[in-house]
TrEMBL record:
SUPFAM superfamilies: FAD-linked reductases, C-terminal domain, FAD/NAD(P)-binding domain. PANTHER family: MONOOXYGENASE-LIKE, OS06G0597600 PROTEIN. This is 2,6-dihydroxypyridine 3-monooxygenase substrate binding domain-containing protein. InterPro entries: DHP_3-monooxygenase, DhpH_subs-bd, FAD/NAD-bd_sf. It holds the Pfam family FAD_binding-like. Residues 161-289 form the 2,6-dihydroxypyridine 3-monooxygenase substrate binding domain.
Length: 380
């Protein structure tokens, strides 16, 4: 079958890999003009994602992730308050993205091509790129939390704001004296205060290096936000554009950066505030819950954040994207879905949607539970 994927981030790339492996003609259309770079921070690489990468390439745990051995909770003065085991390997969005890209033939990915809509009939789907249209057997929507394709299918549905935001940043390990970061290296370090949670851990270098001194610190600072005007201000970039859910690195307004640094100096332990102060391009993400009413609509399938957006606390975003891709490929195996049998394709997608939506419900529910345990989440 000919399958068009809208969106070339991790979910879209993972789906292209699995669908390509079983013989489908897969093309990714990514609206960005060039390969994505620096679009996200650290990610926890869980077992399902590791198995997926190892099945389709040569990337093993040691090559793409930095292990953390303990979870250290520190108080306002920086003293150790609690010490717990921590076994999650942490990678970076860039590293996982680059790993997936390297496994796909370059001609599979088309940059500067935004899917603007679709129409479908019993025999296929017409995918629209502005005034241009391409015919396909299946369209996969992997266009993120604010999915335009999901909005076309379910115009009355919108993700719900969870009541808190995450300031985020990445800073080079080499920017600090060894003594200044000695208590942070090899640990996940956390600090909790009323209505906020800060965490920091090491991730690979931008080029994937794990060498000491070449790695980077990834930090996240979750803070409750109960004022709609403040939320709007956080999501307004330096050009004055208001964004739906996040602002990429380097695009925060000067006022937002000043606010972030002032808060860090006032509220964080010095060992953590130094990370914020040294970050050249912090960014911000508003936390939303999203569960599409269905993951399929005829010959259109929704995956990744377009289908369901998990809260970061579950540390399952990359793993869920991989499982979305694997399960979709299993539903569309050539012996199960013949492109000449329209009813079969639509039926298989409907069955996949119902099963996958039920599977992610547990993860979706776990996010608010974890947030509540940290004192996070007060909807506007």
């Amino acid at each position: 079958m000919k399958i068009i994927i809208a969106g070339g981030s991790i979910a879209g790339l993972a789906a292209a890999l699995t669908l390509d492996c079983i013989g489908h003609d897969v093309q990714i259309h990514e609206r960005s003009a060039a390969p994505l770079r620096g679009q996200g921070g650290g990610v926890a690489v869980l077992r399902r994602m590791m198995a997926f990468l190892e099945q389709h390439g040569h990337h093993c745990r040691d090559m793409i992730s930095v292990p953390t051995h303990r979870r250290h909770w520190i108080d306002r003065d920086g003293a150790l308050a609690r010490d717990e085991p921590e076994l999650l390997p942490f990678s970076s969005w860039d590293t996982v993205y680059r790993s997936l890209c390297s496994m796909l033939p370059p001609q599979r990915i088309h940059y500067g091509r935004q899917v603007t809509g679709f129409s479908q009939d019993a025999e296929g789907v017409d995918v629209h790129f502005g005034e241009h249209t391409e015919r396909a057997d299946v369209l996969v929507a992997a266009d993120g939390t604010g999915s335009a394709l999901r909005a076309q299918i379910f115009p009355g549905y919108a993700p719900s704001f969870a009541g808190y935001i995450a300031w985020r940043g990445i800073v080079d390990e080499a920017d600090f004296d060894a003594a200044a970061i000695a208590t942070l290296v090899e640990y996940m370090t956390l600090h909790k205060a009323p209505g906020e949670l800060f965490m920091a851990f090491l991730i690979p270098a931008l080029d994937g290096s794990l060498a000491q001194g070449a790695r980077r610190f990834n930090w996240l600072w979750y803070r409750n936000e109960t004022d709609s005007e403040s939320l709007r201000r956080h999501l307004t970039d330096r050009a004055g554009t208001v964004h739906h859910a996040s602002i990429h690195p380097g695009e925060l307004s000067e006022r937002s950066v000043e606010t972030l640094r002032q808060l860090a100096s006032e509220r964080l332990p010095a060992v953590l505030s130094q990370l914020v102060m040294a970050t050249r391009a912090p960014f911000v993400q508003a936390i939303f819950d999203a569960l599409s009413p269905s993951f399929a609509h005829g010959r259109v399938a929704l995956i990744g954040d377009a289908a369901c957006t998990l809260r970061p606390h579950t540390a399952s975003g990359t793993s869920k994207a991989a499982h979305d891709a694997v399960s979709l490929a299993q539903a569309l195996t050539p012996d199960a879905a013949d492109a000449t049998d329209a009813a079969n394709v639509v039926q298989r997608l409907a069955q996949w949607s119902a099963q996958r939506r039920e599977e992610v419900a547990t993860l979706l529910a776990r996010g608010p539970q974890l947030a509540a345990s940290f004192g996070l989440g007060q909807p506007l």
